Amino acid sequence: MRSFINVEDIGPLDKALAEAFEIKNDRFKYQHLGKNKTLMMIFFNNSLRTRLSTQKAAMNLGMNVIVLDVNAGAWKLETERGVIMDGDKSEHLLEAIPVMGCYCDLIGVRSFAGLTDREYDYAETVLNQFIKYSGRPVFAMETATVHPLQAFADLITIEEYWRTIENSELRIENYDMPKCGNEANGQGVQGNRNSQLPIHNSQFKRPKVVLTWAPHCRALPQAVPNSFAQWMRAADVDFVITHPEGYELDPKFVGDARVEYDQRKAFEGADFIYAKNWSNPGVTNPADYGKITSKDMSWTVDAEHMSWTNNAKFMHCLPVRRGLIVTDDVIEGPNSIVIPEAANREISCSVVLKRMLEAL
Amino acid sequence: MRSFINVEDIGPLDKALAEAFEIKNDRFKYQHLGKNKTLMMIFFNNSLRTRLSTQKAAMNLGMNVIVLDVNAGAWKLETERGVIMDGDKSEHLLEAIPVMGCYCDLIGVRSFAGLTDREYDYAETVLNQFIKYSGRPVFAMETATVHPLQAFADLITIEEYWRTIENSELRIENYDMPKCGNEANGQGVQGNRNSQLPIHNSQFKRPKVVLTWAPHCRALPQAVPNSFAQWMRAADVDFVITHPEGYELDPKFVGDARVEYDQRKAFEGADFIYAKNWSNPGVTNPADYGKITSKDMSWTVDAEHMSWTNNAKFMHCLPVRRGLIVTDDVIEGPNSIVIPEAANREISCSVVLKRMLEAL
Amino acid sequence: MRSFINVEDIGPLDKALAEAFEIKNDRFKYQHLGKNKTLMMIFFNNSLRTRLSTQKAAMNLGMNVIVLDVNAGAWKLETERGVIMDGDKSEHLLEAIPVMGCYCDLIGVRSFAGLTDREYDYAETVLNQFIKYSGRPVFAMETATVHPLQAFADLITIEEYWRTIENSELRIENYDMPKCGNEANGQGVQGNRNSQLPIHNSQFKRPKVVLTWAPHCRALPQAVPNSFAQWMRAADVDFVITHPEGYELDPKFVGDARVEYDQRKAFEGADFIYAKNWSNPGVTNPADYGKITSKDMSWTVDAEHMSWTNNAKFMHCLPVRRGLIVTDDVIEGPNSIVIPEAANREISCSVVLKRMLEAL
Questions:
Q1: Is the confidence at residue C151, as pLDDT, over 60?
Q2: Do the Cβ atoms of A82 and C53 come within 8 Å?
Q3: How far is Cα B128 from Cα B138, in angstroms, rounded to an integer?
Q4: Residue B167's pLDDT band (cuts 50, 70, 90)
Q5: Which of A301, B226, B264, B344 has fewest C-beta within 10 Å?
Q6: For residues C182 and B206, what is the distance between their CA atoms, to the nearest angstrom?
Q7: Of A85, A95, A104, the CB nearest to C318
């Protein structure tokens, strides 16, 4: 695997999932692969989960890790040619990026959307410059339009919970659970150590997975819903997206996924509710790109919303603003799986790094 | 050992000291214990000694280390429930802390006292949230009211110097000394490589150890004197505390320790002087909590003060403000052991991490 | 090797170069040397290449690495004695530096010139304090007046390219090249994997190497040209320095090197052009120290400048301001070797750390 940006990069999802559970069962199994290999993590934006889980995954694989925090203000890169660089940009990306590539074997890049220039953001300008000029395999640690490590972790989490819901013999209580997360609110349940479990297959019914927009006080990127939509379309699930009119996600990611503007209808029969805010993607009205065009608080996921579902699990990529995206009782309730979902970030990243190391 | 906060957590002190000298003799002896284990160090406040010595101790034990600097301004955690999080707090601690626990095996937390709300500080709110919600063993890297890694290092240092003072056959000059610190001022002497030394016992007289308040220009927390008092009470020493009236430390830490308001009387016959400033603990007058109610420069430890003692060693946890806490001649003099004391931070932390790893 | 500051510290250059090519051929050959050894990297100033390449080199050698970013504003060290430290300086260097030495085996220091007090800068006050008080071997990661890791990497690069230019049998195209850098512009060529290559010797003619000043919008230190001059004088090359009158470098570094104020004359017949800006060194006029006394844009290295040379390779330590130091076409052209030059920072540092580890 030369790069990890889109769902196609990981190949067949059943194989990727099998590998994920194998690694979850024995996190250090592929430790030899990373010997004398260096991961460089480049952050143009802040990070908690991605920073920690990616470091952990790299260390699981025996890699060395170098973390580079690029304060966008302190280190502005010139991108134009023919410019006299006498301003605040002290280095040209045509030098900076190849140099970073010199000292490592793999590169992870975090670079959020600016949310002002749709074309620039959706061209994934920064990410593509790293792919073009670094000379190294590159993976997205949330970039302008995608967050595939999150979407893969989400898929792992859905698979993990769904097969234990559907097959009583595989009930999650029967496994030896790693202790992790807020056990006080029931979220300690987060996985299993049995790599022999069958991957989700035809013997189970397909889960209904709903991606729902929810209100937020700040303009957020579309990277998470974009990737989630892309991955769910590729997965063996019944996928529905619901959001206020005007918040249509980019067709590149949504494809022919079902969009239901009536949130209640979307929730009916759902097995998994995936809540997320995003700012206006500017698909229907380019002038709205990156703006907050709805603050409709009726979209906040509360107990009543959850009562419309088929006893659905509640998911969110975190961080989450309570009272806007979701109410306390729902996120702390027994059906909330946000902590195990976050824990699976280590697993999705371990699979991705393993694949990239194998392809070096 | 599930957590490391108070002196009781380390068990019998003679055993802990024996382990400390064993590790000082062979720092990498327990390197196998940390294989594939990850320490997460979370800093809500700045750190030099603790940051460096804890990383070093973890690496001695073969652990992986992840350092997370939480700029308190940039990442404010919501702690209340039932709140609509539309302000500057982007994440609730009920999600953030369990997530951090997902990616590591042990957690160290640095979080200073705010010095405005005594009840909040002395409840160790932040530390206890990590203990309650992270799902991982937690140790204090200086929190609101305690700094046990420092106090344990202090005890190791006292033991190390005392037995060589008392027993000429064990004189420190006879040992193969690691080169460390400012040898120019005689502080190069900092320990021994002979793990067979007898632990301080009944054959020696008990050293007189004096904790003395000294003036400072800024309001400082009580964590260091609190833990030092707690550990000295548990140790086999003659312990005296001296400070201006009104600066009484919390009874929880001081217990029935002797308090002497006359600094000169306290210093008489002392074998170790441990200087430290702290702001008013608000014990006698709650309204004074966290304030500077004395700047009495007669408390600064100078050569005359030291002349009252039994040729005492001078100790301080560092950083130290010269001219306020202590004069140049005393801290640079042959009886100053502040550098070996700092060096023992690596040793105390190695013992603590070893114990925590063994208990996983 | 106890410290690494000046060219003499590395010993005979042919041996150092042989070791560099040996390590480039097998970067992990000396990995056993760094086992249980800790490098502390202390940054008083920002760094990209040095930060990354030094970490990589240390990891190549199996070392543990601790990175300490000292924000000069946040952590001011008192250097005077007899002072009452009631201002903004919370720690005295006489404590801070020995403590840092306690937790590591080797120390790298980055500390730029202030460019206001020539005597202070050229006394290498900060670096020498670390040498004197840390109790550890110290190396410069660019200090007030030197950048020897850069100069050594420059020498390696010149040697590498020169022998392949001069000896067609050793042409660089014949080697198995590591992929690195911006291959799109031909800079992918950056070294060879054949450690049996003869080191530059009498069978080749000596290359003409020209250090040329070029204009810049900000006042920059003299560390890079100082060290480059020092190393080129020690190397087997025909070395010429060119700059506007008044920009004479310090005699301590330049010695009897040829200075040619006519840039065109200097460039004639050159095999390597090494461009760099530096602020006025204050040699001819002390009042000019650290100032910009020329912004003469005719010194910018463009295609016409390069046409005066013997098809010279273009070098720069990076970061570089295009349009001031060099034009786009030159730095992106086939003769630019700035990326392979940066890649050799890992190699020069690996040799230095290897030598320091061997001498522990």
A1: yes
A2: no
A3: 9
A4: low
A5: B264
A6: 69
A7: A95
Q: Which of A103, A108, A112 is nearest to A138 (CA)?
A: A108
B19 vs C205 pLDDT, higher one: B19
Comparing CA positions, the residue from C227, C61, C53 lying closest to residue C152 is C227
Amino acid occupying residue A54: T
Search chain A and give the residue with CA nearest C188: A135
Q: C81 to each of B48, B338, C73, C92, C100, how far by Cα in Å? A: 22, 17, 21, 9, 20
Contacts B49 to C, Cβ<8 Å? 99
Task: Spell out which residues of chain B touch residue A277, defining contact as CB-CB under 8 Å.
Answer: none
H, E, C per residue of B313-348: EEECCCCCCECCCECHHHHHCCCECHHHHHHHHHHH
Whether the bond between A319 and the residue before it is cis, its omega within 30 degrees of 0, is yes
H-helix or E-strand spanning residue B351: helix B338-358
Q: In the numeric block, which tokens belong to residue A49? A: 């989960």
pLDDT for C8: 97
Residues from chain A that touch B97, judged by Cβ atoms under 8 A, are 182
User: In angstroms, rounded to a whole number, what is the distance separating the alpha carbons of residues B105 and B112?
Assistant: 23
Tell me which residue in C40, C91, C94 faces B332 most closely, judged by beta carbons: C94
**C265-275 residue pLDDT tens:** 999 999 999 99
For C85, which of B55, B188, B321 is closest by C-beta distance? B321
- What is the CB-side half-sphere exposure of residue B46 using CA atoms within 13 A? 9
Q: What is the pLDDT of residues A319-358, one digit of tens each?
A: 999 999 999 999 999 999 999 999 999 999 999 999 999 9
Check whether C192 has a pLDDT greater than 60.
Answer: no
Which residues of chain A have a Cβ shorter than 8 Å from any chain C Cβ? 36, 38, 40, 64, 66, 68, 74-75, 78, 81-87, 90-92, 94-104, 132-133, 135
Q: What angle do CA A66, A343, A299 make, to 5 degrees?
A: 115
Q: Return the structure tokens found at A259.
A: 């969009």
Beta carbons of A135 and C179 less than 8 Å apart: yes
Contact A150, A350 (CB under 8 A): no
Q: What is the mean pLDDT of residues B190-204?
A: 44
The pLDDT averaged over each successive group of 10 residues in chain A (360 residues) is 94 96 97 97 90 96 92 68 89 92 97 95 94 96 98 97 67 38 40 40 78 97 98 97 98 97 98 98 97 97 98 97 96 96 98 97
Rounded to the nearest 5 degrees, what angle is found at the Cα of C54, between the Cα atoms of C47 and A32?
A: 125
